[in-house]
Amino acid sequence: MIALGVSSPPSSSSPFGLASFASPPRPSLRILSPFPSLKSSFHGIRIGNDVRALTPLPSRRGGGGGGRMVVRMAKREEEMKEIRAKTTEELNEEVIDLKGELIMLHLQKSARNEFKSSEFSRMRKRIARMLTVKREREIEQGINKRLSRKLDKKWKKSIVVRPPPSLRKKQEEQKAAEAEKST
């Protein structure tokens, strides 16, 4: 609760006990607490270097969480082996296709069609892995960051716009359906 009051400046007392009113009275701000007897001693939280904060917490489920992580890691390693087996041109083509698929997913989302939201992160991670392998190869060839960006810019300008594989598949299915109707 806040109360405004009027207080006078420190007065210079006259011999008769009257204050001189040379300046007008100024408002002062007083804060009145609804519970004047309660004062908080809370001054924030101190976060120190605690060893317990660095160790992982045990799983709430009975020890089944660790095995799934190993399986995911194995799948990721397997996927990286597949990506590394491809040529740089194949990687570039697949990156273009995946980016097109990502755009199609965004369109499905904006049209409020059914889609798997997990596909967004899966595709972005796959694209990132491919670009990482591409950059690793550039580093092996001795291409520095600046030249790499210049080459990347040139590559992006040379991309020919084409529909992603899922859209091409739908178009082929539509053409097949129209051919069946016409015969």
- For the termini, the CA-CA separation is 84 Å
How much β-strand is present in the residues? 5-15%
What's the arrangement of strands in the largest beta sheet?
1-2
The description of the largest β-sheet is: 2 strands, antiparallel
What is the architecture of the domain at 78-158 at the second tier of CATH?
Answer: Orthogonal Bundle
- CATH topology descriptor of the domain at 78-158: Helix Hairpins
Mean pLDDT: 76
Overall outline: extended
Judged by helices, strands and strand pairing, the structural class is mainly alpha
Query: What's the β-strand tally?
Result: 2
Rg calc: 35 Å
What kind of assembly state do the chains in view correspond to? single chain
Low-confidence stretches: none
CATH class type of the domain at 78-158? Mainly Alpha
What are the key terms here?
single chain; 183 residues; mainly alpha; Helix Hairpins; two-stranded antiparallel ribbon; extended; plastid; chloroplast
Describe this structure in words.
With 183 residues, the protein is mostly helical. The chain has a domain at 78-158: Orthogonal Bundle (Helix Hairpins), CATH 1.10.287. The protein has helices spanning 51-54, 65-85, 88-110, 118-141, 145-158, 165-182, and strands at 2-7, 26-31. Strands 1-2 form a two-stranded antiparallel sheet. α3 runs antiparallel to α4 (118-141). The radius of gyration is 35 Å and the shape is extended. The mean pLDDT is 76. Its main location: plastid. Pfam families: Ribosomal_L29 (PF00831).
